[in-house]
Amino acid sequence: METMAKCPGVRRRKGTTHWWFRRRIPQDLLDHYHPKKEIAFSLETSDYRNACEKARMEFVRLDQEFTEVRAKLAAEIRTEISDVEMDRLAMMLEHSMLRADEEIRLAGSDDTTYEWWEQKHQERLTRYKRALARGDVGVVADMLEDWLINHGISLERESERFKELAYRFLKAAVVASEKQGKRFQGDVVNTPARPAGELFPAATPSPVQTATDDCRLAFSGLFEKWAAEKRVTRSENTVQDFGVYVHRFIELHGDLPVEQITKAHVRDYRDAMLKLPVINQLPHHYRTFNVQQLLELSDKQPDLQRLSPKTVNEKALGAVGAVLKWGAKNGYLDSNPAADMKISLSKSAPKARLPYSIDDLNMIFGSFPVFTAGERPKAGGGEAAKWLPLLALFTGARLQELGRLTTEDVKEERGVIFFDMVDAGTKTANARRTVPVHPELVRLGFMEYVDVRRREGGGALFPALQSAQDSPTENFTKWWGRYARKHGMTDPKKVFHSFRHTAKDGFRNSGVPKEYRDLLQGHALPGAGELYGEGASLEVLAREMGKLCYPGLDLGRLAPAAG
């Protein structure tokens, strides 16, 4: 149960004192945010007026985010960018930062919210200026990559063009932040005009084929007729959502005459969709692949997250079936070949990925040679083979986040040792967070390992990780699957990601409240994101992290030798 406030999006959950923010994801963006259907997180305040102020900031930020995501989805991915476009992108950043800042000021704020906002701004400006002085473009690399993808451009992060653009981007961020600072002093600072015209001119869309060469109605044509009628009663977003899956059907089978579509075509489409990777979980350069390319990628990388049977039923088959049903009803084909083709789902359908049980964990840490005999396979990234599973178990972090950690990301403030995942390569606002180091990791010697890496010159915590993909852990994922099966972990639903599920259950079973579980694991948006807040205090997170325990887990063989 929730207590509803008068402010839009503000709720209070039963059993909590803090107000929460909740907003449904627009229908046309559900695929992009899959599996989420709404964005919800604690506003970290029990004061109603303060919660309303923060919620207004969140609506502004999310409106901008949704606009940028729509632009991304509509754009054609490019791999080059001109000097003129780089200048325009930097100008757009300055415009956007100052526009968002002005919209929040127009809404007004109380003294508490203003002071909190001003403090976060000063922290951000200091971080940006320090990075600019050192030429450290990494501080804006993730934000820049998101901006590029939002505008239909994919550049390799290691390329010279990306680094050059990142430097311009960082300078624009400093300029905009300094202007925001003048506004905090009461100075009049106008928001610069948005760069005229399209930031990146869109490619001319190909004409839609609505009939085959012999003038018979093609499936794309049937969809256009269906869409023309449904736009009267349904939103354009819903029509476009259906069009995504109709297009996938056409990519798989070609634009068939509607009377030639059979149950076999629908069956093959259904089976293909069950193998299809979740697009927004893939590295950016894969997201422009067609269905055939995605299926080939799926065969080569069996650990990729795939569309769930429920998603295939409700979206993939739901869209194609609805169009074909309408076609049969209106006489364009004799019957609906998609009828009765949905997957039978058990009410207790098994999870795609299962957590490890305590027995599983004791087998892993008590019998795998990387833990019991000091084995360090090259394919496992040397010391990464030992530490990544332990870190995953006692942080609940994603493998890619852990694999990107550097010695500089392990910090200590006010007596709390923590991972600074704000700078550790996380790519989404909800993933950027600070995660205290669990006391068990300290006991097992993790900080001694960090000290060794620092004496070796610092940099990546696990420099032996190698991958040809964007993620340094791409090969590690495959190695862990092979290694675990070799040593007795035969359940295909138990993979490295199972550590994250195990930690999620562990936090819950250890009595950690959901709002802190979400903050620690990167499930919830922290405060108002990068611009406006960073969630709970470090001391509070350390207290909650310390509660995490696994009754029955035996790590005695991993403890450092005495003396």
Short description:
With 563 residues, the chain is mainly alpha-helical. The protein has 22 helices and seven strands.
Q: What is the subunit arrangement here?
A: single chain
Unreliable sequence segments:
200-209, 524-534
Average pLDDT level: 80
Classify the secondary structure makeup into a structural class.
mainly alpha
3D architecture notes:
It is built from 22 helices and 7 strands. It is mainly alpha-helical.
Give descriptors for this structure:
563 residues; mainly alpha; four-stranded antiparallel β-sheet; three-stranded antiparallel β-sheet
Chain-wise SSE layout:
Elements: E1 2-4, E2 10-13, E3 19-24, H1 30-33, E4 38-42, H2 48-74, H3 83-107, H4 111-134, H5 138-150, H6 160-184, H7 219-230, H8 236-253, H9 263-275, H10 291-300, H11 309-329, H12 358-367, H13 369-372, H14 384-395, H15 399-403, E5 410-413, E6 416-420, E7 434-436, H16 439-443, H17 446-455, H18 474-486, H19 498-509, H20 514-521, H21 529-532, H22 538-546
Antiparallel strand pairs: 1-2, 2-3, 3-4, 5-6, 6-7
Helix pairs in contact: 2-3, 3-6, 4-6, 5-6, 7-8, 8-11, 9-11, 14-19
